Amino acid sequence: MAPATPEQWLDWLYSKLARRKSMYQIYGQYYDGFHQRLMFSQVRHFDQFHNTFDTWRDNFCGMIVDSVNERLAVEGFRMTDEPDADKDAHDIWQRNFMDAESNAAMLDSMIQGVSYAVVWANKQDQPTITIESAENFIVQYKPGSRRELDAAAKFYYDDWGRQWVTLWLPDAVYTFAKGTFSWELKEPAKNPLGVVPVVPITNRSRLLRDPVSDLHVVIPIQDAVNKTVADALVASEYAAWPQRYVTGLEIVEDDHGNPVEPFKVAVDKLLQAEDPNAKFGQFEAANLSNYVVLVEMLVQHMASISRIPFHYFVSGGGQIPSGESITAAEAGLIAKTRERMLHFGEAWEAVMRLCFAVMGDARADAFSAETIWRDPENRTEAQHMDALLKLQMIGVPRDQLLSDAGYTPQQVSRFADMREKDAKAAMELAQKYPDPNAQQQDPTGDEPGNKPAGPPGMSQKAQKTAAKPPQGNSGNQARKQNPAK
Fold this sequence. Notes:
It is built from 15 helices and 13 strands. The chain is of the alpha+beta class. The strands form 4 sheets. Strands 4, 5, 6, 7, 8 and 9 form a 6-stranded antiparallel beta sheet that branches. Strands 3-2-10 form a 3-stranded antiparallel beta sheet. Helix 6 runs antiparallel to helix 7.
């Protein structure tokens, strides 16, 4: 039976979060590099070397997530059909420090699959946005719906170790504190929005399953890399000092029958034996290149699955591509980033609609809203400008070109004011210091003075040229017929 009271909702959501919290923590540990760093094949190797290599880490999980997250940046919103960015939405965004908070929300979403944004009103009735982690936040969707929420709850501890919870329902908001035996209701409040004011920021939405972390398919390969590298380190420890042997030497035993080591091997020691039959030798050093080949194969699999360019990973034998090769290599990464923009953009638009609902603004129903993203591609400045100039030739408006060039909507808006000021300054300068040549020059291009008549349509300058005597080597006869004027 579905929960009917706030206390029942609290118990249900608490148990639901407890089932998932350990999984979220594991994803976070792999991203931070605090997971099982080295996996030894034998217990005795772990006992011997885990302290030696305790601080050593080989972790690609952080780079896989960061390479996408560093290309995600929200520039603004278009809440209506107007081509310009919405200034009110930008003010709300900046007032809530969302340039940084949105980055943290998308980072946690890619690590754990989901994060949450809570929209509420402050004392001045202005919308506030707070970002919450999936490790202490949980929601419940309405039966049969993948978008509408029945309830949401945040579980957290204060600095004195006492546990608290905030419960959001469509009609009210409740605050509980953990008592000795049960939850104690502290501050009930009315919910004027009529909906649960929480927006899940999902990494990749699934139809029948929970959102998926980017590390879900990477962790098994990361464990295999750790295992292989651990074996290589153990082999390098045993092979660091070449193993030597001697044959034909009598074995000396102590009083208890245990063999006594005949030599104290060291760098400055010389091995010698009086027995002429004794022979010394040395085993061949271990070849660690096989481990390197195996690690590179695993990294290639990781790059293919995560759609991260291979040159992002450590590769001893490969060369970093350049120019067109980098563009082709990063095509999968750019496509992956744009896919994340699709899912995250829907969430941020829902957040902004809730913000306008707090203000009682009609834009709360702006379902045609659009998130403006920064261009995720990294191109050379020359290539970028050349492409923009070609777009200008086919009629793309200037403001759109400036936006494609990487300028924010606020900068594009300021450019219009700057152009107007430049035009005004140029006009004032022209009035103060007029060009004398411009005043004397005839609009048709003729010098002022006598204007000889000529055929209609012929410029006065052309008439004057036609009236000049012929020049060249035509002789005196031509000069007589056309005396100079």
